[in-house]
Amino acid sequence: MKKIVCFVILIILTINLSAQDSKIDRFSYSLYWTPIYYGPNDGEFRLDAILPLAFETNINYMIIKRISVSSGIGYQNWNSSHVGGWESIFDPTKSINFQSNTLRIPFQISYQLTKNKLKINPYLKTEIVKEFGFHRTRYYQDDILYDSHSYKIYSTTLHFGIGNLSNISKSIMLLTECSIGTFVYRDPFDSYQIKFKLGILIK
Fold first, then answer.
1. Minimal CA–CA distance to 58: which of 3, 90, 105, 93?
2. Is residue 10 part of a domain?
3. Predicted TM-score (pTM) above 0.85
4. At 19, is the secondary structure helix, strand, or coil?
5. What pLDDT was estimated at residue 139?
6. Quick check: 172 and 150 in contact, CB under 8 A?
7. Could you tell me how many helices (H) and strands (E) the chain has, helices first?
8. β-strands 191-202, 53-64: how paired?
9. Environment class of residue 109 by beta-carbon count within 10 Å: exposed (0-12), middle (13-18) or buried (19+)?
């Protein structure tokens, strides 16, 4: 019962806010490229930890003039192969292949730092992302499949960062973001993520 009452109050407040300012273009849509760097906390940069094949599309809703929420769906693919085997001794006849496909569902809250719409519109953001993935590892001996195993991935990440919207036209804006985050249900000091976003926002 309490949940129903809270939900009704939230709807009423939303309607009141909409009535107070009907001039805001509340809905917009965004599509962007989202490469992610998965970095271990060992102080070393790893080129193979960059996952460039990642994309997202979101629906954005402006609650009030400077605060908006966004949610949508994203996809990430990672494929990597190594020659030398899966044991400590190097063996050129052995190789291993890693493949991962991940579906992401983000929820983001943004706070615009400027009151008026300018050519450059910076904002702060916090984002929670649910990830559902499928990972497969294949082992090869003389280019013949020797063994394989697969498992599913479920995780939640939390990100904080900054972004900017630059006007291209009256209805299209260039979106850029950078954020740092970590897994929620793991040791937050075990690893980190650096995520970039580059795309367009359509009003």
1. 105
2. no
3. no
4. helix
5. 85
6. no
7. 1, 10
8. unpaired
9. middle
Inside any domain, residue 146: yes
Q: Is 40 helix (H, G, I), strand (E, B) or coil?
A: strand
Tens of pLDDT along 33-79? 999 888 876 667 777 778 888 999 999 999 988 899 999 999 999 88
Give per-residue pLDDT as tens, 146-180: 888 888 988 899 999 999 999 998 889 999 999 99
**Letter for the amino acid at 153?**
I
User: What is the C-alpha to C-alpha distance for residues 145 and 28, in angstroms, rounded to an integer?
Assistant: 48
Q: What CATH number does the domain containing 153 carry? A: 2.40.160.20
> What pLDDT shows up at residue 17?
47
Q: Give the mean pLDDT of the chain.
A: 82
From residue 137, alpha-carbon distances to 31, 82, 148, 150 in Å are 31, 11, 6, 6
Q: Is residue 17 part of a domain?
A: no
- DSSP letter assigned to residue 47: G
Domain count, the chain: 1
Query: Could you tell me which of 49, 142, 58 has the C-alpha nearest to residue 100?
Result: 49
Cα–Cα separations (whole angstroms), residue 113 to 47, 116, 162: 34, 9, 10
Domain assignment present for residue 5? The answer is no
CA 38 to chain centre: 12
Domain of residue 118, residue span: 24-202
- Nearest CA-CA partner of 57 in 173, 151, 197, 157: 197
- In percent, the amount of the chain with pLDDT more than 70 equals 80
